[in-house]
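User: Hey, my collaborator sent me this sequence without any context and asked if I could get a structure. I don't really work with proteins. Can you help?
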Amino acid sequence: MHNRSPWPRTINDAAERIIAIMNDKERKKVASLPEGKLQKLRFSLGRYLHSELGLLEGNDALIKACAISAHGNFESHFFLNDADSASKVILEAIWNRLKRVTPLTNCLHM
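Assistant: No problem. I've predicted the 3D structure and written it out in C-alpha cell form, which is a compact way to encode the shape of the chain:
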C-alpha cells in the first residue's frame, strides 16, 4: 500500500521528485550518460521509478501522461500504457533536466 505523499500526476512532477531524492553523485552519473545509454538505467533507476512513483500500484494519471508525451493524445490510445514505457519517458525527462542543470551547479562550486 502506498503511504507516501500523493503520487505525481505529471512527468515534470515525477522528474522533480526523483531528482530531489538523488544525491550529487547520482545526478552527475545520470547527466553524464550519452542519450543512447539511458537504457542502462532500466533495471536500476527504472525499477526504482516503478515503486517510488506508483507505476505498478495504480498511478494511471502518470502512466497516461507518459503515453501522451511519447505518442500524442490520440495515438496514445493505441500504444501500450505500461510502467516500463512510462519509466522510459520519466528517465528521459530526468536526464534532460539534469543535462541542463549539472553544468550550472558545477560552475557555482568553482
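In plain terms: The chain has five helices and no strands. You can pass these C-alpha cells on to your collaborator as they are.
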